[in-house]
Amino acid sequence: MTFSDVVKAIKSLSTDEKQEIQLLLKQYLCEERREEIHTNLKSALFEQQKGELKFSSNINELRQLARGIIVEVSFSASFKRAFKKRIKGNVDLEARFWEKLEQ
Questions:
Q1: Closest Cα to residue 53, out of 38, 69, 37, 72?
Q2: CA 79 to CA 6: how far, in whole Å?
Q3: How much is the pLDDT for 36?
Q4: What distance separates the 2 farthest-apart alpha carbons in the chain?
Q5: d(CA 69, CA 71)
Q6: Which comes out higher in pLDDT, residue 78 or 17?
Q7: Cβ 29 vs Cβ 36: under 8 Å
Q8: What is d(CA 75, CA 83) in angstroms, rounded to the nearest whole number?
């Protein structure tokens, strides 16, 4: 079943059924986020136990620490669709987008 099929199926449901799906999706998203937070917490605790975490309130020290961090960016499916629709293929916009992202 494709995404389009799911959307069509949802459109054909009653208002009550659509509201139930909305509630379920909110719950699923909350559960996924909780799991992500829990995973990140376990990872941070492990790093702390290994002495890999560094804390500071000194802005210069924080800037120096930040320079050594590789930032991982993940885009949502809706962002990816919007990017393909509006930016991809437009060389100037793509270049500006990636330039801003790398700052």
A1: 69
A2: 20
A3: 93
A4: 58
A5: 6
A6: 17
A7: no
A8: 10
Quick one: how many helices (H) and strands (E) in the chain? 5, 0
Strands (E), the chain: none
Looking up tokens 């136990």 gives 49
What number of CA atoms fall less than 13 Å from residue 54's CA on the CB side?
Answer: 10
Taking the C-alpha atoms of residue 11 and residue 16, their distance in angstroms, rounded to an integer, is 12
What does the pLDDT average to over 85-93? 82
Name the one residue in this structure whose structure tokens are 């961090």.
69
Q: How far apart are CA 25 and CA 31, in angstroms?
A: 10
Measured between alpha carbons, how far is 67 from 25 in angstroms, rounded to an integer? 38
Q: Which single residue is written with the structure tokens 């293929």?
A: 89
pLDDT tens for each residue of 2-46: 999 999 999 999 999 999 999 999 999 999 999 999 999 999 888
